[in-house]
Write a structure and sequence with these properties.
A five-stranded parallel beta sheet has the order 7-6-5-8-9. A four-stranded parallel beta sheet has the order 2-1-3-4, sandwiched between helices. It is built from 13 helices and nine strands. It has two domains: 21-153 and 317-335, Rossmann fold (3-Layer(aba) Sandwich); 158-308, Aspartate/ornithine carbamoyltransferase (Rossmann fold), CATH 3.40.50. By secondary structure, it is an alpha/beta fold. Helix 1 crosses helix 13 (312-330), helix 2 crosses helix 13 and helix 5 (158-172) crosses helix 6.
Length: 339
């Protein structure tokens, strides 16, 4: 996408003339299950312009000056929270970061009342993470403020899935007809769920690989019911990664072993760790992705995690550009007259 250079490092990317910009009507970003291909491509195009801003000496444009973004996280986070805050600051929005464990929630205030307080304080966008699936949806029923879901329970993590797709697009130049193996704890992964929706919409062939105890109950029936004809299940890691363009690993949480879902960590490593040998079964230029945090030596060996095919660090960088694009669209940047 063309960038306007006006002799200033704060010149705004020329994204106001994008042919599809006025078609964006979303007030919230809750999941990718209702996103169209055109909407995702619009986010990626704007992220390209935002990525250019992030390469400048002064990584800031005045696009969202006067807007306020609040992050409200009811679960711990490093990458997602920091990424949204950097994205907002790069667009010159005011930011407020709140820790739910130190808010009035601990005094008995409800989620809705807590969020209403933030709305009354002037929040234009609330980025929230919550342990309960559906919490962001509940918030939209009571608030006029825009809500971006930064992860709700096991349900969804839309901005992570968008940055995953964006990273693949930037490295491989396309999304359609690619083969992506998603390996690990599918059952408890909101990242996997959002990626299934997003990748299916973009024409990606998805292979889900995990022990049977880490696959959601009724997964095959769900895939059939939702007509995910390009999503398949393969229990053997070697078969899943064979011919893959991308191998996406999911973090294995230690409590899964403690809850009896795995015989032992050693057995999981033996059967599902991505090693250099197993990666060699994929295409020669296959990407390795991981939403983080990475358990090196568990789901991936250190040589692969830091190898030439790993795009894990680029995912983190691309996350800022994608979240800048979402904030730009959600907070009304597309209607900005700043030049």
């Amino acid at each position: 996408m063309k960038i306007t250079e006006q002799g200033s490092s704060t010149a705004i990317p020329e994204i106001f003339t994008h042919p599809d910009i006025d078609a964006w009507q979303r007030r919230h970003v809750l999941d990718l299950d209702d996103f169209t291909r055109e909407e995702m491509e619009l986010v990626f195009d704007i992220a390209d312009a935002m990525a250019e801003v992030l390469t400048r000496e002064v990584k800031r444009v005045p696009t969202l000056r006067g807007k306020t973004m609040v992050t409200m996280f009811y679960e711990p986070s490093t990458r997602t929270r920091a990424s949204f805050e950097l994205a907002a600051k790069s667009l010159s929005a005011d930011t407020l970061s709140l820790d739910a464990t130190k808010s009035s929630v601990v005094k008995g205030e409800s989620l809705v009342d807590n969020l209403r307080t933030l709305q009354a304080l002037g929040a234009d966008v609330i980025v929230m993470r919550h342990s309960q699936s559906g919490a962001p949806y509940l918030a939209t029923q009571y608030l006029n403020t825009s809500i971006i879901n930064a992860g709700d329970g096991w349900h969804a993590h839309p901005s992570q899935a968008l940055l995953d797709l964006y990273t693949i697009r930037r490295h491989l130049g396309k999304l359609t007809d690619l083969r992506v193996a998603i390996v690990g704890d599918i059952m408890h992964s909101r990242v996997a769920r959002s990626n299934i929706w997003g990748m299916s919409t973009m024409g990606v062939k998805v292979v889900l690989c995990a022990p049977s105890t880490l696959l959601p109950h009724g997964l095959s029936e769900f895939l059939t019911r939702c007509r995910f004809s390009n999503v398949s299940i393969e229990p053997r890691l070697e078969s899943a990664v064979e011919g893959a363009d991308v191998v996406m690993l999911l973090r294995l949480q230690m409590e899964r072993q403690q809850s009896g879902l795995l015989p032992s960590l050693r057995e999981y490593i033996q059967n599902y760790q991505l090693t250099q040998h197993r990666l060699s079964l994929a295409k020669p230029c296959a990407l390795v992705l991981h939403p983080g945090p990475v358990n090196e030596g568990v789901e991936v060996c250190p040589e692969v995690a830091h190898g030439a095919q790993s795009a894990i660090e680029q995912q983190v960088t691309n996350g800022v550009a994608i979240r800048m694009a979402l904030l730009y669209l959600i907070a009304g940047g597309k209607r900005s007259n700043v030049s």
